[in-house]
Amino acid sequence: MSGVVQVTGELIATRRAGAYHHLTFVAPGLAEHAKPGQFVALAVGGDTSSNLLRRCFSIHKVSPSGTYGGTVDVVISPVGPGTEWLSGLRAHDEVDIVGPLGRAFPLPKEPVPCVLVGGGYGSAPLFWLAEALRERGCHVELVLGAATESKLFGVVEARRQADGVSVTTDDGSAGTRGWVSDVLPEVITRTGAAVVYGCGPMGMLKSITDVAAAHGAVAQVAVEESMACGVGVCMTCVMPVTGNDGVTRMVRSCVEGPVFRGDRVRWDAFDDGVCRVPADALGAPNVGGH
Amino acid sequence: MAVDMSVDLGGASLPSPMMTASGCAANGRELARFFDIRELGAFVTKSVMADPRSGRGTPRMAETPSGMLNSIGLQGPGISAFIDKDLAWLHQAGARTLVSIAGNTSGEFAVVAARLRESAAFGSVVGVEVNISCPNVANRGLVFACDPLASAKVVALVREQLPRNIPIFAKLTPDVTDIVSIAQAAVKAGADGLTMINTLLGMVIDTDRLRPQVAGVTGGLSGPAVRPVAVRAVWQVKSAMREGRLPTVPIIGVGGVRTGRDALELVAAGASAVQVGTATFNDPSAPVRVGRELENLLQDKGFGCLKDAVGIAHERMA
């Protein structure tokens, strides 16, 4: 929980990347403490903005000592008023940034083969993770999937930073036609992967967890729950996760996550954009709700 | 010269009027990463009930113009774990704590208050806020604070459980026909002060799916959008006190405060202390930043102490 800073970040680079925008901010004191899988919470719209809630993005990469001081990169998908405001920023504009937040991807102690799976721009933190894993001697393969080619992120970077890359699109516009879960079994089997890391939509993370379990691998997934604050005070980003004691609790994905062991997440509670409280969760409502 | 920002809230002497708002600050550790929580007049904890409570499913929130709708459902650890982990932490951190308590029944409020009184860290408690107005309960808007008799019963039961030197504050909802009658009932039953306002019952429809956006269907509306409602509620109750329709007790103003200017509105309407809630989600340093801004504003306007500004707008009717 330590090492978090709140800083005014100056935007020094913004560019389109397919359907997304890739932003680089100077963020003094933030880059030095960040690890792959952590995220930042950005205020949007300026001091008098009517959009009060923070927008949270996984960190794409950090450079602790660049020409401008420490920098942090994020990838955003402009789909609402906050992300559209961010995508319209120009160089030297300022944004209030809080980070690094949340728990990072745990790294294996041994140099075991790993597969990293990203859905859409969920791939953003995986390249940095791949670098950290390869520094430890791990064989690293990436699987990138999206609805269509323009919604893939980082295919070129992936080829540079991984030992192998597989691409899938729902419409077949790039790579294999289908889902990441269609190609994942072959990649795990071929590489003998011990760990599968994932970042992307809930449905994809569930299927990664299932495939990993079926092949004897551990899944570590970074969730994308909507958050209002990112720092653990609003209680909106909760999800049911089973702890070491076997008890399911509604835990905050911003402080206990965003990375969870896939087999600890109660995927059975998620359906059609809603997550129910499992009946066996600690303090679950009685019939009639609470 | 610095402005004297100290306040006396029903016997609790605090060096600052600034507080977190219940449910917008968790229980201390999270915001302690951003500022020294001892700078606050008091840290207000998330409402705690007798037993652990999961809260509702998700989605739990929707962003609204200058605000948000939340439907958390009083998630919490229960009073035992709260005392052992959260209150103990606040105590060792040196925080002055205003503990918010809630219950499904009036009896549950009393049980929670009794457990609190017996706790080892009770020395850090400067007061108890009685949350009789959370809209995120099974019976939705039909909260205790919609009914004078129900409000009075809860307040009286809690008052019996706590020593006289621990002031209790009844937290009221603005979702009533006449907030003054609720305030009268709460004070008559033993409330040493009033906290106004809780969130307003609201609802948002997800227009992609054409269904309620939050899993709890309805939720509590908060943020700068509701600030004029808070100012109005504080004004009405303070007016009634000035007219002698209820005893004068301190008011803690809360609702949509984002800047020192916003806090000054509530103070001028009659609030002796100010809580910062939803703005904390936007700026985790907001509770202390607003305090500094308020102090600067008071100094600019020539006030030597905060107390002189409390309710001043009642004397300056246009």
From TrEMBL, chain A:
<dbReference type="GO" id="GO:0051537">
    <property type="term" value="F:2 iron, 2 sulfur cluster binding"/>
</dbReference>
<keyword id="KW-0001">2Fe-2S</keyword>
<dbReference type="InterPro" id="IPR019480">
    <property type="entry name" value="Dihydroorotate_DH_Fe-S-bd"/>
</dbReference>
<keyword id="KW-0408">Iron</keyword>
<keyword id="KW-0479">Metal-binding</keyword>
<dbReference type="GO" id="GO:0050660">
    <property type="term" value="F:flavin adenine dinucleotide binding"/>
</dbReference>
<keyword id="KW-0249">Electron transport</keyword>
<keyword id="KW-0411">Iron-sulfur</keyword>
<feature type="binding site">
    <location>
        <position position="237"/>
    </location>
    <ligand>
        <name>[2Fe-2S] cluster</name>
    </ligand>
</feature>
<keyword id="KW-0813">Transport</keyword>
<dbReference type="InterPro" id="IPR050353">
    <property type="entry name" value="PyrK_electron_transfer"/>
</dbReference>
<comment type="similarity">
    <text>Belongs to the PyrK family.</text>
</comment>
<dbReference type="InterPro" id="IPR017938">
    <property type="entry name" value="Riboflavin_synthase-like_b-brl"/>
</dbReference>
<dbReference type="InterPro" id="IPR012165">
    <property type="entry name" value="Cyt_c3_hydrogenase_gsu"/>
</dbReference>
<feature type="binding site">
    <location>
        <begin position="82"/>
        <end position="83"/>
    </location>
    <ligand>
        <name>FAD</name>
    </ligand>
</feature>
<dbReference type="GO" id="GO:0016491">
    <property type="term" value="F:oxidoreductase activity"/>
</dbReference>
<protein>
    <submittedName>
        <fullName>Dihydroorotate dehydrogenase electron transfer subunit</fullName>
    </submittedName>
</protein>
<dbReference type="InterPro" id="IPR017927">
    <property type="entry name" value="FAD-bd_FR_type"/>
</dbReference>
<dbReference type="GO" id="GO:0046872">
    <property type="term" value="F:metal ion binding"/>
</dbReference>
<feature type="binding site">
    <location>
        <begin position="55"/>
        <end position="58"/>
    </location>
    <ligand>
        <name>FAD</name>
    </ligand>
</feature>
<dbReference type="Pfam" id="PF10418">
    <property type="entry name" value="DHODB_Fe-S_bind"/>
</dbReference>
<feature type="binding site">
    <location>
        <position position="229"/>
    </location>
    <ligand>
        <name>[2Fe-2S] cluster</name>
    </ligand>
</feature>
TrEMBL record, chain B:
<comment type="pathway">
    <text>Pyrimidine metabolism; UMP biosynthesis via de novo pathway.</text>
</comment>
<feature type="binding site">
    <location>
        <position position="171"/>
    </location>
    <ligand>
        <name>FMN</name>
    </ligand>
</feature>
<feature type="binding site">
    <location>
        <begin position="70"/>
        <end position="74"/>
    </location>
    <ligand>
        <name>substrate</name>
    </ligand>
</feature>
<dbReference type="InterPro" id="IPR001295">
    <property type="entry name" value="Dihydroorotate_DH_CS"/>
</dbReference>
<feature type="binding site">
    <location>
        <position position="131"/>
    </location>
    <ligand>
        <name>FMN</name>
    </ligand>
</feature>
<feature type="binding site">
    <location>
        <begin position="255"/>
        <end position="256"/>
    </location>
    <ligand>
        <name>FMN</name>
    </ligand>
</feature>
<feature type="binding site">
    <location>
        <position position="22"/>
    </location>
    <ligand>
        <name>FMN</name>
    </ligand>
</feature>
<keyword id="KW-0288">FMN</keyword>
<dbReference type="InterPro" id="IPR013785">
    <property type="entry name" value="Aldolase_TIM"/>
</dbReference>
<feature type="binding site">
    <location>
        <position position="46"/>
    </location>
    <ligand>
        <name>substrate</name>
    </ligand>
</feature>
<feature type="binding site">
    <location>
        <begin position="198"/>
        <end position="199"/>
    </location>
    <ligand>
        <name>substrate</name>
    </ligand>
</feature>
<protein>
    <recommendedName>
        <fullName>Dihydroorotate dehydrogenase</fullName>
        <ecNumber>1.3.-.-</ecNumber>
    </recommendedName>
</protein>
<dbReference type="GO" id="GO:0005737">
    <property type="term" value="C:cytoplasm"/>
</dbReference>
<feature type="binding site">
    <location>
        <position position="131"/>
    </location>
    <ligand>
        <name>substrate</name>
    </ligand>
</feature>
<dbReference type="GO" id="GO:0004152">
    <property type="term" value="F:dihydroorotate dehydrogenase activity"/>
</dbReference>
<dbReference type="Pfam" id="PF01180">
    <property type="entry name" value="DHO_dh"/>
</dbReference>
<keyword id="KW-0963">Cytoplasm</keyword>
<dbReference type="InterPro" id="IPR050074">
    <property type="entry name" value="DHO_dehydrogenase"/>
</dbReference>
<feature type="active site" description="Nucleophile">
    <location>
        <position position="134"/>
    </location>
</feature>
<keyword id="KW-0665">Pyrimidine biosynthesis</keyword>
<comment type="similarity">
    <text>Belongs to the dihydroorotate dehydrogenase family. Type 1 subfamily.</text>
</comment>
<dbReference type="InterPro" id="IPR049622">
    <property type="entry name" value="Dihydroorotate_DH_I"/>
</dbReference>
